[in-house]
DNA sequence: TCCATATTTCTACAATCCTTGAAATGTTGA
DNA sequence: TCAACATTTCAAGGATTGTAGAAATATGGA
């Protein structure tokens, strides 16, 4: 991930409403949510949610696609993963002191491929 | 990590000079760097570097300590690690699609305790 | 075609952030 | 005590960002 994109991503996540939106969309999964639903759940006006959604998309953290009258937004897993990786290897230079705690999280949320059944 | 601190951390990292400073301090390791050295290496004025260092400290990403006339800044490994963890578990809800790539990085930069010799 | 729905774009304004240079603070050694 | 050094604080200005509401765009159905 290039630095410019990382800077945009950090800026995108540094705003409360936008951080909430990302969380909501991650939880919503591949089905995503329509802009209106996001606005309602986040408690902001349609025009305001549109402003923030655009910012998040510009940063590569969410995706959009039209579905009839609605526009459906989904979390961009690739973008979010790339940002975490940037933070670990580019920014923190892979320092074990920093990355070790993250490794624990990774270990418990990402079961190894062959035993991902339970 | 509470949300407010995460927001501050993201804001802190969303500025080019500050991102560079964090990188420099991570690389510098436990010895850290004096404010003046940071300013010179980052190519900004003393007062400007002071402004950014304060912001980074407020966010909990760096530490400071006076050493004679100089003030030595060091990366705050705990703070940086906590931010990565926040991004993985709180923000991204531990989604394997997002965290798996991070797990690879973690695996290669954090050797298991009993074989950290080579 | 016309209307209702869903969303975005535009405009204006307030708030925050970044930069700059000057002045202030704290530290050391003569 | 005084001068030099390292850094921070302050004040001012310009730039960027966030918010609100009105107007515009796109879609689908009567």
TrEMBL record, chains A, B:
Residues 1-95 form the HTH arsR-type domain. It comes from the Bacteria. GO terms for molecular function: DNA binding; DNA-binding transcription factor activity. SMART domains: HTH_ARSR (SM00418). InterPro entries: ArsR-like_HTH, HTH_ArsR_DNA-bd_dom, Metal_resp_trans_reg, WH-like_DNA-bd_sf, WH_DNA-bd_sf. Keywords: DNA-binding, Transcription, Transcription regulation. NCBIfam families: HTH_metalloreg. This is ArsR family transcriptional regulator.
């Amino acid at each position: 991930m290039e630095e410019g994109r990382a800077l945009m991503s950090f800026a995108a996540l540094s705003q409360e409403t936008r951080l909430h939106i990302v969380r909501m969309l991650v939880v919503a999964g591949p089905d995503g949510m329509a802009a209106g639903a996001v606005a309602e759940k986040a408690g902001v006006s349609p025009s305001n949610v549109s402003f923030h959604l655009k910012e998040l998309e510009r940063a590569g953290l969410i995706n959009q696609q039209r579905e009839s009258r609605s526009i459906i937004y989904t979390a961009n897993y690739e973008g979010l993963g790339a940002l975490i990786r940037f933070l670990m290897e580019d920014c923190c230079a892979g320092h074990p002191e920093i990355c070790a705690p993250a490794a624990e999280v990774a270990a418990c949320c990402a079961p190894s491929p062959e035993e991902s059944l339970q």
